[in-house]
Amino acid sequence: MIEIKNLVVEIEGNRILNGLDLTVRDGEVAAIMGPNGSGKSTLSYVIAGKEEYEVLEGEILLDGENILELEPYERAARGVFLAFQYPLEIPGVATMSFLKAILNAQLKARGEAELTTPDFMRRVKAAAERLQINQDMLKRALNVGFSGGEKKRMEILQMALLQPSFCILDETDSGLDIDALRIVAEGVNALRDGKRSFLVITHYQRLLNHIVPDTVHVMSKGRIVRTGDRELALELEASGYADYVTEAA
Fold first, then answer.
1. Full-model pTM
2. Can you give 177-213 as a three-state secondary structure string?
3. What is the DSSP string of 32-70?
4. Partner of 82 at 20 to 30 A CA spacing, among 28, 40, 149, 220?
5. What CA–CA distances, in Å, run from 199 to 25, 66, 106, 134?
6. Pfam families from the entry (predicted)?
7. Closest by CA position to 68, among listed 87, 85, 51
8. Residue bearing the bigger pLDDT, 214 or 246
9. Alpha carbons 43 and 32: distance in angstroms, whole number
10. How far apart are CA 19 and CA 115, in angstroms?
């Protein structure tokens, strides 16, 4: 479970999060929707540990531990995973070498034995087939020459291999056609197990047709201004965010 309490965050003197409170329970899929500039991506970066942001107040508790004092790699070892809105291309870094390195690093951090090459290959092959990632993609440098949908599938592949306990999807639907969206959503849904939690950040209801949330939160001006069930997402799709921007102002 993750509990965010009175989180106040600035970047370069600009207040982005303004006393934000949020709880995501074990096994819950929570969606955050809101207008541009409301602080949704900032929230994801602060949870993951991006250094540019200054936390002025508040706590982020993962299973009772305040992770704000931890380095990003330590948060990842605790089970935090962030799927970026725009995954980076990394020329010169082979995809398979990258996947093996991150998986064995996580296993080592958890006190588990590293995988042999045959065991690693079997895991990757099985997960890649489910996400319709072909062998040619796995032979390239990481994300280099990938389409938007291929980059998102590669991130879900990383998530499937690492088996994190808290997964943040930052506008994963950006740039995806309906087929790629379905494939990515199926990969996410396959990881829902009653214990693993998800924070799904999106502007649009269409993603939530495929990854059905337990709760929906509306974010505006750096804080949560309303919480409801999946019907709230349908309401937002129909009426937009104008009322919430006015309320938060």
1. 0.90
2. CHHHHHHHHHHHHCCCCCCCEEEEECCCHHHHCCCCC
3. EE--TTSSHHHHHHHHHT-TT-EEEEEEEEETTEEGGGS
4. 220
5. 10, 18, 21, 28
6. ABC_tran
7. 51
8. 214
9. 10
10. 43
By three-state DSSP, how is residue 216 classified? Answer: strand
Residue with tokens 């790699």: 73
Whole-number pLDDT of residue 60: 98
What's the token pair of residue 197? Answer: 């939690």
Q: Which residue has the tokens 């949704």?
A: 40
φ, ψ of residue 135 in degrees (nearest 5): -65, -30
For 20-60, write each residue's pLDDT tens digit: 999 999 999 999 999 888 999 999 999 999 989 999 999 99
DSSP secondary-structure letter at 140?
Answer: S
With 0-12 / 13-18 / 19 or more C-beta atoms within 10 angstroms meaning exposed / middle / buried, residue 140 is middle
CB atoms within 10 A of CB 230: 16
* Architecture label for domain 2-248: 3-Layer(aba) Sandwich (3.40)
Cβ-based neighbours of 212, under 8 Å, separated by 6 or more:
29, 230
Tens of pLDDT along 93-151?
A: 999 999 999 999 988 988 889 999 999 999 999 989 888 888 889 999 999 999 888 88
* CB atoms inside a 10 Å sphere around CB 17: 26
